[in-house]
UniProtKB/TrEMBL annotation:
The keyword Thylakoid does not apply. Keywords: Signal. It comes from Allobacillus halotolerans. The lineage of its organism: Bacteria, Bacillati, Bacillota, Bacilli, Bacillales. The keyword Signal applies. This is CueP family metal-binding protein. InterPro entries: CueP-like (IPR047808). Residues 1-17 form the signal peptide.
Length: 172
C-alpha cells in the first residue's frame, strides 16, 4: 500500500510540475519590450496599432489586445520638435503619431533637477518625426533641442501620471 501511495504521489508531482503555468519566465523567454517599442516606432508593423503609456505597451491587432509592462525604472518619452505644425498628444501612438520634421537630426541635451547631464546626443527623428528616449522614472528634466540654428527648451517629467508624447516643443 505504501508503494502505491508513493507512486501516486510521484505521478501527481510530475503532472503538477509539467502543467505549471507560472509567469516566471526566464530572462531569455521574456519579451524584450524596449526592442518591440523600437520596432513599432521604426514602422516595422503590419495591421497592428501600438501605443505606449507611462507603464505599458499596448498592441491592438484585429480584436485582440496585448499589454506588456515597461521597465520598472525607465520611462519612455517620444518628442516631436516642430516649426509650423503639431498635434495634441498625451500617450504616444507608435503606429499613428506623425511629427512635422521626419528624418531630421536633432541635438538633444537633457539635464536633471540637480543640473547633471543625463543625455547629450544627436538623434534622428525617423520616418514618424519623433525622437524616442528612455529616461529614469520619477524625475523632472530640462530638455534643450537644437536643429538648423533653431532651439527650444522645455521641461519634461517622468512620473506615472505623465504622458509619453511631447508635441509642444516649437523650434524658434
Amino acid at each position: 500500500m505504501r508503494l502505491k501511495i508513493f507512486y501516486i504521489t510521484l505521478v501527481s508531482l510530475f503532472l503538477l510540475a509539467a502543467c505549471n503555468t507560472s509567469d516566471d519566465a526566464s530572462p531569455a523567454e521574456q519579451t524584450d519590450v524596449k526592442e518591440m517599442v523600437n520596432e513599432y516606432s521604426a514602422g516595422n508593423f503590419g495591421d497592428e496599432q501600438a501605443s505606449i503609456t507611462s507603464t505599458e505597451l499596448i498592441i491592438q491587432e484585429n480584436d485582440e489586445e496585448k499589454r506588456y509592462e515597461l521597465p520598472e525604472n525607465e520611462f519612455f518619452v517620444s518628442i516631436a520638435p516642430f516649426i509650423n505644425q503639431t498635434h495634441p498628444c498625451g500617450d504616444h501612438s507608435l503606429t499613428g503619431c506623425q511629427g512635422e520634421l521626419a528624418n531630421e537630426d536633432f541635438e538633444i541635451t537633457i539635464t536633471d533637477a540637480d543640473g547633471n547631464v543625463v543625455f547629450d546626443e544627436t538623434r534622428n527623428a525617423g520616418n514618424n518625426g519623433f525622437v524616442d528616449l528612455w529616461l529614469p522614472r520619477d524625475q523632472t528634466y530640462q530638455v534643450l533641442v537644437k536643429h538648423d540654428g533653431k532651439t527650444v527648451e522645455s521641461e519634461v517629467s517622468t512620473f506615472e501620471e505623465d504622458g509619453t508624447c511631447v508635441t509642444t516643443m516649437q523650434l524658434m
